[in-house]
Amino acid sequence: MPRLQWTRASSAALLALLGALSLTACSDDDDDKKPDAGSQPVDAGTTDAGTDAGTDAGPPVDTGIPWDGGSAGDFSCQGKATATLTFAPGQEQEIQNQVNTLAECTTIQLAAGTFTFKNAITIRQNGITIKGAGKGVKGEGTGTASSTVLVFTTAAANSNGLDVVGKRFEVSDLAVWNAKKDAVRVESSVDVVMRRVRTEWAEADKESNGKYGLYPVKSKYVVIDECEAYNAADAGIYVGQTEYAIVRNSVALQNVAGIEIENTKYAYVIGNTARDNTTGLVVFDLPGNPIKGTDIRVVNNIITDNNRNNFASVAASSSTVSQVPAGTGTFILASRRVELTGNTWENNNSLDVAVLSGLIIEQDPAQWVAGGLNFASADINIHDNVFKGGSGDNVDNGKLDAQRRPLGALVATLYTFGETQGTRQVEHLVWDGVDPFGHPRTDVNPINICFTKNTLPAGTTTAIVDLDLLAAGTAVTGGDLAGGWAKTRHYAATGTAFDCAGFSPALTIGDNIK
């Protein structure tokens, strides 16, 4: 039985708050600042259609992207002196003393058990490896005979757990518990591997929890493999402002955002589980960041039951994440050349997949200059996935807040009226209908969103909705629910302009992974 619970009375109360539906954007990285706006003109083209497709190959680490030389090959420990430093619980101060003077190409071997730190473990050296005895299991805040847990419960305020800048950094087989800020932060680094690492905060749903679990940012050639992230107040697993990354075989539960790919070029996201977050797996660009995200391949992930109430701090978290309605499976925003295939969506209360324009969060094109005017979403290929159902029937868990989460409130308001017209659930694919290039509305699919060969629940009639958000939102905020609903357009999965062949050149990232 569908759970649409909004009433006309609650919708009327929301209308007074919806305003112009302008979400204020800020960077996920506290240190980023927007550039001067300048007078850069707006591109009046159509879709990217592959113009950002790279020929640069990839790293020497196992990303599944072949490498033919360049920056990732400029540091190696081969032929250099190496050292291994071994520590046991109780030697935390010795560890802190050593990391301040590490020689390059050093391995830090941590024994099983619990290590308690008062400050971040700060690495500023190349060729450093940190190894534990195992990451343990969810909820384990102390180490066992087969796990290593780094505890930061009493560490200095606003400190990270691991804080790394360097080339050829690897961390594996340990857990980071209760970091004050980010659990594992790796910034401005090259050739980064995180393998079998668990990041966790002891209590769920606390906006005072650290923002990020695994957080490689402003980096190049990143691998996150067989990792786990729980209870982050922003994103459990994050890759941002990065070129070449793989996130695979990992689990993100109970975070605001499970897995987040932001302002990143060339990413392969495969075989992960994003469940019980506010939003499961997201791909987006933000304004003011220099990398224009492109070529993101999302394959064989499970994105289900992402209905956790949004507990991000409005003050401390990125506003993009704090404004996501609970029950969002996946959203793609200001992104291009994104392929979603082999994935499973189910029981995401608000919606399964949304494709949104960056102009929804920042309407001034000049603020997008740093990323090459990267506000437009285009060339999104969603094919051969499974949509099991149970989604789209309880937007934002019915806890609507038009000031903090206006997009969810607007969708809920529209579908309140839509239910009277026989549309009882939000469709599996939601497009905001915002076309930054000004095509006439007679162009049904101007930004080339393809939705093909997907398995849908029995009895599905409409699978895609074009919200025509600018027109419908204006009507709804003016109190005209019927007029707003009339602006929306609903399409079957086949036989429409969305039943298309993808984009060219096609993505090949990950094809050579065995």
From TrEMBL:
<dbReference type="InterPro" id="IPR011050">
    <property type="entry name" value="Pectin_lyase_fold/virulence"/>
</dbReference>
<feature type="domain" description="Right handed beta helix">
    <location>
        <begin position="169"/>
        <end position="321"/>
    </location>
</feature>
<keyword id="KW-0732">Signal</keyword>
<feature type="region of interest" description="Disordered">
    <location>
        <begin position="28"/>
        <end position="70"/>
    </location>
</feature>
<dbReference type="InterPro" id="IPR039448">
    <property type="entry name" value="Beta_helix"/>
</dbReference>
<dbReference type="InterPro" id="IPR012334">
    <property type="entry name" value="Pectin_lyas_fold"/>
</dbReference>
<dbReference type="Pfam" id="PF13229">
    <property type="entry name" value="Beta_helix"/>
</dbReference>
<feature type="compositionally biased region" description="Low complexity">
    <location>
        <begin position="43"/>
        <end position="58"/>
    </location>
</feature>
<protein>
    <recommendedName>
        <fullName>Right handed beta helix domain-containing protein</fullName>
    </recommendedName>
</protein>
<dbReference type="InterPro" id="IPR022442">
    <property type="entry name" value="SO_2930-like_dom"/>
</dbReference>
<dbReference type="InterPro" id="IPR006626">
    <property type="entry name" value="PbH1"/>
</dbReference>
<feature type="signal peptide">
    <location>
        <begin position="1"/>
        <end position="27"/>
    </location>
</feature>
